[in-house]
Amino acid sequence: MMYPEVRLRRLRQSQRMRDLVCETRVSKDELMLPMFFDANIGETKYTDSMPGVPTHPLSGYDAIASGIQDSGVGSVLVFGVPSHKDPTGTGAYEEHGVVQKAIEGLKENSDLLVAADLCLCEYTDHGHCGVLTEDGEVLNDETLDLYARTAVSQAQAGADMIAPSGMMDGEVAAIRQALDDAGFKNVPIMGYSAKFQSAFYGPFRDIADSAPGKGDRAGYQMAWGNAREAMREIEFDIAEGADIIMVKPALPYLDIIRMARDRYDMPIAAYQVSGEYAMIKAAAANGWIDEQRIMRESITAIKRAGADIIITYFAEDMARML
Ligand code: PBG
Ligand code: ZN
Fold first, then answer.
1. What is the CATH number of the domain that holds 43?
2. 45 has catalytic annotation
3. pLDDT tens per residue, range 118-133
4. Counting C-beta atoms within 10 Å of the first and last residue's C-beta, which end of the chain has fewer, N or C?
């Protein structure tokens, strides 16, 4: 049966009818908010390229957390900007480092689920995600030892989940082993499994001052066009013990999310990154697009593609709309 017997518009007649046949609904529970803490500031700071995204000082956790929880968002992903940067990113794994303090502060003052991003690029003076040779090459295996130390220090601070984002080979296995050895068998790992070498990370690097001084991340993050390689990255993370896999960025890589959804029975996270957010904010500020509707449409599309968890700077705004 076809038109004119069948009319697809019958089910689009009213809001109630449309709600009844709605296929994709976003819920607050699946939103995760990225958060920044800076050891160098005494008051909340804002970054031009990320309108509305605060960088917090290491204080006032109670107010920060209740603002988030009031919106209905229950989980956060924490990043830190350290007081000092050096070649080996010491600030990432020192006992009272910025992110360790932030995790402790949030856990002591809220019921939030606190995931910790694990990388060295915010902590190295050269801005790369691992340690370098004299020629500026990023060393894989030497970097893994530092990731392992960082993971344990984050778990000790109370992190509910560790999220390695450095794209070193073997990072999930190294972190799993280190966590288990240190008695953190129940701390899950959310791997940034398929992380592309994206220009959409630009505004994030303004916040974290983490752009590589020399070169780029093409030697470890993935090339834009590679979908099959993304599946291999995900397979490796699953084999190494990841509990959740991630695709990042989100909207330009919906096909990758869908491929992963069809192949793997794993919880899948998708990260709507800083550039995706900044583009929407900038166009909306010019009056060129409807921010609220584009926010909802893009997040719904990410969900429809197959994401279970959506990491987004819009998390609070989105949750308030739901
Ligand atoms: C650290 C990291 C980055 C992002 C998340 N973790 C930056 C990068 O890889 O340069 C980007 C997040 C965003 O753009 O919102 N490796
Ligand atoms: Zn990094």
1. 3.20.20.70
2. no
3. 999 999 999 999 999 9
4. N
